Amino acid sequence: MDPVILEKIKILKEKTGAPIGKCLEALQNSDFDLTKAEEYLRKKGETLLEKKKEVKTSQGVIAAYVHFNGKIGSLIELKCETDFVAQNQDFKNLAYELAIQVAALKPLYASLEKIPQEILEEKRKEFLVGLENKPQEVQEEVFKGKLEKWLNEVCLLEQPYFRNENLKVKDLINEYVNRFGEKIEVGRFIRFALDE
Q: What is the Cα 8 distance to its own chain's centre?
C-alpha cells in the first residue's frame, strides 16, 4: 500500500480512534482528504446510533469531577451496551471529559428530547415576543435561530466541546460510538457549585 495512504490512515486512527478498516473506508470515500474522512466517520457514528436506537444501554460508568478549588463539581452517568466497553479506559476518559463539560458549561438537559414540552412552549412565547405582526415564516426563522442558540447553552449534547469549539459534544460521543461500534448515551448528570 502507498506509504502516503498508510500515513493518512495512521493520522486518522490517532485522531478518531476508529479501527484501521474504517479509517481506510473513510479515506476512500472522501478522496483521501483527512478532514472529509473525519466528517465521514462522524456521520457513520450517527448512522450507527440511528440503527441502535432501540438497543438498551444497561452498562456504563459514573464519572466525577471536582474543580481544583473544591467549589465546583459534577457527576455524570455515561451508558453503553457492554461491560467490555464500560471498563475500557478510553470510555472512562470520555465520561470524565463530559463531567468536566457539565461543571464548566452548566447544561440543564442532556438533549432536546429531555426538555419538558411546557418549557419549550414557554421559550417559544418568549422568543416570539414583539413579532406577532410579522409573517409566519419570519416568526419561524427567528424562533429556530433563538432556539438553536439557547440549546447550545442548555443542552449538553448541543454544546460546543470545551476542548474544541468546532466540535459539539454529540459529535465527540459519535467518535466513540464509531470507535467501539456500540451505542453510547448520557444518562443523568448533576452539577454542584458553592454559592449558586
A: 25
